[in-house]
Design a protein that fits this description.
The complex is a heterotrimer of chains A (299), B (353) and C (276). With 299 residues, chain A is mainly alpha-helical. In chain A, 72% of the residues lie in helices and 0% in strands. Chain C has 2 domains: 5-53, no CATH class; 65-261, Orthogonal Bundle (MetI-like fold), CATH 1.10.3720. Classes of the chains: A mainly alpha (299), B alpha+beta (353), C mainly alpha (276).
């Protein structure tokens, strides 16, 4: 091979390594994404072979008037904020507890991280069963503790249906936050704590002046990313309540799925998805501008 | 063993130039040391020879063969890294045998080569150990063993002794020199330590800011440094330097720096009024006799000799004496700066012969 | 550091609560799965049945389609894990060892794919794969899962490769190895635990995936475990014992993998931080 030929091959080498992943992403994610977005403007009914015509903004007009959709928007807010907040707080506390050496720590760590290994569909089913008065202990326990007014299924009551998926999501998501926080905690040098202890700081003071500030960057990034992920997460809702009863536990993400899978109205589902994308995009922009303003203030 | 020929080699990383037009001809079997401060380009030059980076301009030949386009494995050279780069998951024996296994040598050949290298470096007891069970000095020897097993055309050393403590460094320096004598291997050795350069090299290449400053034998660089950089870099303690102007008085030329004036024994082709830099090594400063008077500021005994910091007519000067002078701070002492020991450099820093 | 007895007491108490919270749902699953049918309703909320029976497990394993579902999930998850390891290993290697034009674009692309709702791909995916005959097929699922998991796996692999100093490969190449040889002999053995952890992670993710399997698979023959379990639930909505037994069986591979890899995950995340 000529010298230039060999040189070209050497320059092209990294592209060869990245090609398969790139092809997969473009083919399996980006192309369907653009196709999917186009569906938002067309009438695509899976069971109607004659559908496929261009309908412009009809779906969006329907969305604007759709009470289920506005409910879904509200629920998405509640679902995301409560789930992420609980996952974060409980996860951080767990990480703090695990950050010390104690006998049985390895075992405790493995046990406490176990929920993350459970497949999400099983998490949904398991907690649905736990809330089921027939086979699950929770309805009678909650009633006995005077937390609920009766011993019925939380998931069948429109007022409380969303609680089920939230609890399940928190149970499942604590390990993730705990692992991330633990890794960040372990990267804080011990000398800082020892110096603070010599200076007379107690446990809480050390937490406030050393742990929290040094942990803040990792935590903030994790929370921001996790928020997006939780907002997009539809599995638990689909499995536990299917968005019901009467769309009282529907989020925007689960609505996309139920419209596509149950109603088989791909056009409408894609319109909902387009709105979801827009919301995420707006969220991303908000984060970036916040970051810019923070950097500007602190640099 | 082969000669290495470097012609007009330049290297850029993106738009940042790192090496400028380096010319160097290394004879077969010669031990050449590239020396200079951090960032001078010596390691980059070594990596270009090894084939780990690509040359931006110029050519490199090994054994008469142009190697610019050849990957490292085709250049038949061996390298000892600063961090040793021993394969952590292989035993010492496997580390040394790796290159031969790649060449598909027979088991007997491998055993013989590894055995010979191991005996020469005293590694026999360590052959089954993994690198993490070895001390720094032992790892260094395994790194060298890995290199000599291959019988390559040339050896490249990238600051191999920097990670060792002072005592071990002295010992390994001698080992490397002995090994070179035994093997007669063409070697290019990179270091920032001028003592290593002086003791190991057949020839030294002094580099600064990506350019070659001077190439010559250690004593050449010591006796006749080509510019201010080499003068100040080679020799420890460093050469004293002060700016001066040539001035004519009676028939002789003097170098004047403030109130300090030094007579020259001959003109040296200087014109009156020329600005220049004067250098004299501390070990050449004569104490106890001479026309000048110095005040002692600081005395540093090193066991071998004494470093004396003086103030001489307002100028700071360091002297080095092998004798045990009983001097106290503030003492006055006679000083002479012999004309024959003066190094003169023009405004650009180049040596005035 | 010295801490008071009160500190340690509250420390252990909180940990006990966490362990209880984490394990209780799983315990309950096992408990109902082991409760014989006649005691299921009368002893519904007891903490442990008066008599345990393996009848549900026997039924699930011998008289239902669950072994089929299990096998399908195994095939899909294993294939995905292997292919992702190869593909993401290559891409991670490229990102770790090379500087090239478009690298930041590639990284941005990989990051973006982690952010957007995969749910919205469900509809177009179905319509695109149907004419290709890839709906109702395990192959189709493998392709989809591979693409979904590749970006995250690439980042994981990149961080593992970043942890091995470049000089080791350089030494190998000077010793006579090609770049690929250096990768095979030096990089791979040293990052094997990390690669195994990534593979385990992908396996678990593919094993759990529900929505796309639900959308793309409609025949029982090609159903993976989540789809099968869900259909079981809707068909036999009163046979909790059997459903829970199936659930326990679904748990086993995932939990085993996780117990194995969780130590590496923490270590992997901290190793990056220490090296800084």
């Amino acid at each position: 091979m000529s010298a230039t030929g060999r040189r070209l091959l050497r320059l092209a080498e990294p592209y060869f390594y990245s090609a398969p992943v790139l092809l997969l992403i473009v083919g399996v994610m980006l192309i369907p994404l653009s196709v999917g977005l186009s569906y938002a403007f067309r009438d695509i009914q899976l069971l109607d072979p004659f559908s496929g015509g261009f309908v412009g903004l009809d779906h969006f007009r329907e969305l604007a008037a759709d009470a289920s959709f506005s409910a879904a928007l509200r629920h998405t807010l509640v679902w995301t904020i409560v789930t992420v907040a609980l996952q974060f707080i409980l996860g951080l506390v767990l990480a703090l507890l695990l950050n010390r050496e104690f006998p049985g720590r390895r075992l405790t760590q493995a046990l406490v991280f176990l929920p993350w290994a459970v497949p999400t569909f099983l998490v949904g089913l398991d907690w649905a069963w736990l809330f089921n008065p027939v086979v699950g202990p929770l309805p009678s326990w909650l009633f006995a503790l005077h937390v609920t007014r009766d011993a019925n299924n939380l998931l069948s009551d429109p007022a409380t249906a969303l609680i089920g998926p939230i609890v399940a999501a928190v149970w499942w998501g604590i390990p993730f936050f705990a692992i991330t926080a633990l890794a960040a905690l372990q990267s804080i040098p011990r000398d800082l704590y020892e110096a603070a202890a010599i200076d007379g700081a107690g446990v809480f003071k050390q937490f406030r002046s050393i742990t929290l500030p040094l942990l803040a960057p990792t935590i903030i990034i994790t929370i921001l990313l996790r928020t997006v992920w939780v907002a997009n997460f539809a599995d638990l809702i689909v499995v536990m309540t299917n968005g019901g009863p009467a769309d009282s536990s529907q989020t925007v993400a689960s609505y996309v799925f139920t419209a596509a899978f149950r109603r088989l109205d791909f056009g409408y589902a894609s319109a909902i998805a387009a709105v979801l994308l827009l919301l995420l995009f707006a969220y991303g922009l908000a984060i970036l501008s916040l970051r810019r303003r923070l950097l500007h203030r602190y640099s | 063993m082969s000669a290495i020929d470097i012609q007009g080699v330049s290297k850029r990383f993106g738009v940042t130039p790192v090496l400028h037009e380096v010319d160097l001809a290394v004879a077969a079997g010669e031990f050449v040391v590239l020396v200079g401060p951090s960032g001078c380009g010596k390691s980059t030059l070594l990596r270009l020879i090894a084939g780990l980076e690509e040359v931006s301009a110029g050519s490199i030949s090994i054994g008469g063969r142009r190697v610019n386009e050849l990957p490292p494995k085709a250049r038949d050279i061996a390298m000892v890294f600063q961090s040793y780069a021993l394969y952590p998951h292989m035993s010492v024996a496997h580390n040394m045998a790796y290159s031969l296994r790649l060449q598909r040598a027979s088991k007997q050949q491998i055993a013989a080569a590894v055995g010979a290298a191991s005996a020469k470096l005293g590694l026999d007891a360590l052959l089954e150990r993994k690198p993490k069970a070895l001390s720094g000095g032992q790892r260094q020897r395994v790194a060298m063993g890995r290199a000599i097993v291959r019988k390559p055309k040339a050896f490249l050393f990238d600051e191999p002794l920097s990670n060792l403590d002072a005592r071990l460094r002295e010992h390994m320096r001698a080992e490397i020199k002995k090994l070179h004598r035994e093997l007669g291997a063409t070697s290019i050795y990179v270091t920032h330590d001028q003592i290593e350069a002086m003791t190991l090299a057949d020839r030294i290449v002094a580099m600064n800011a990506g350019r070659v400053q001077q190439i010559g034998s250690p004593l050449e660089l010591y006796d006749r440094p080509a510019n201010l950089f080499v003068a100040g870099f080679i020799g420890s303690p460093a050469m004293n330097m002060f700016p001066a102007t040539a001035s004519r008085s009676q028939r002789q030329l003097r170098l004047v720096h403030g109130r300090l004036a030094v007579e020259l024994d001959h003109d040296r082709g200087l014109v009156e009024g020329t600005a220049l830099t004067v250098g004299i090594r501390p070990e050449h400063v004569v104490l106890g006799a001479g026309p000048l008077q110095g005040i002692v500021d600081l005395v540093e005994p090193t066991g071998l000799g004494t470093i004396i910091h003086l103030t001489l007519c307002g100028a700071a000067l360091k002297a080095f004496s092998l004798e045990r002078l009983s001097l106290a701070l503030g003492d006055s002492i006679a000083v002479d700066l012999p004309s024959s020991r003066l190094h003169l450099f023009d405004v650009e820093g180049r040596r005035i012969p | 550091m010295m801490r008071s007895a009160l500190y340690w007491a509250s420390h252990y108490l909180l940990l006990a609560l966490y362990v209880l919270f984490a394990l209780f749902p799983l315990f309950w699953l096992v408990k109902v799965a082991l409760t014989p049918n006649e005691l299921l309703y009368s002893e519904g909320i007891r903490l442990w049945p008066s008599r345990i029976s393996a009848e549900h497990f026997r039924f699930v394993l011998a008289h239902s389609d669950f072994p089929l579902y299990f096998r399908n999930s195994l095939i899909v998850s294993s294939a995905t894990a292997v292919i992702v390891a190869l593909v993401s290993g290559a891409c991670g290697y490229g990102l770790s060892r090379f500087v090239f034009r478009g690298k930041s674009l590639l990284v941005a692309l990989l990051l973006i794919t982690q952010m957007f709702p995969l749910v919205m791909l469900v509809a177009p995916m179905f319509r695109l794969l149907a004419p290709l005959g890839l709906t109702n097929s395990l192959t189709g699922l493998v392709i989809v899962y591979t693409a979904f998991n590749a970006p995250f796996a690439t980042f994981l692999m990149q961080s593992f490769f970043d942890g091995i100093p470049r000089e080791l490969e350089e030494a190998a190449m000077i010793d006579g190895a090609t770049r690929f040889g250096a990768f095979l002999h030096i990089l791979l053995p040293l990052t094997l635990p990390g690669i195994a952890a990534t593979g385990g992670f992908v396996f678990t993710a593919a094993w759990s995936e529900l929505l796309f399997a639900l959308m793309l698979i409609s025949s029982a023959q090609a159903s993976t475990f989540p789809v099968g379990l869900l259909s079981f639930v809707s068909k036999f909505s009163v046979d909790f014992g059997q459903m829970m037994a199936a659930g326990v069986l679904a748990l086993i591979p995932a939990c085993l993998f996780f117990l194995f890899i969780q130590r590496y995950l923490v270590r992997g995340l901290t190793a990056g931080a220490v090296k800084g």
